[in-house]
Amino acid sequence: MPDPFEPLVGVLELGGGFWIENGFVDFVECRVRLATWQEHDGTGAAGFGVVSGAY
């Protein structure tokens, strides 16, 4: 089973950062809506997850 924190550790090791604001996790390059994994798997009712170029 893959380590669930590996992507976040990779971001932080490369000097990246993030913050949480208005229901989104902002990774500077893209924003990810805070939601359950069911909503992010593509079959949830929300139908969206990542917003690129939101600025």
Strand content: 15-25%
Amino-to-carboxy terminus distance: 36 Å
Rg on CA atoms, Å: 12 Å
Low-pLDDT regions: none
Largest sheet: 4 strands, antiparallel
Average pLDDT:
76
Shape: flat
Structural class category: alpha+beta
**Strand order within the widest sheet?**
1-2-3-4
Task: State the helical fraction.
Answer: 10-25%
Number of domains: 1
H/E topology pattern: HEEEHE
What does this 3D model show about the protein?
The protein has 55 residues and is α+β, with helices and mostly antiparallel strands. The protein has one domain (6-52). It has two helices and four strands. It has a four-stranded antiparallel beta sheet, with no helix packed on it. The termini are far apart. The mean pLDDT is 76.
Short description:
Strand 2 and strand 3 (30-33) form a beta hairpin. The protein has helices spanning 6-13, 37-40, and strands at 19-21, 24-26, 30-33, 50-52.
Task: Detail the topology: elements first, then pairings.
Layout: H1 6-13, E1 19-21, E2 24-26, E3 30-33, H2 37-40, E4 50-52
Features:
single chain; 55 residues; alpha+beta; four-stranded antiparallel beta sheet; 4 strands
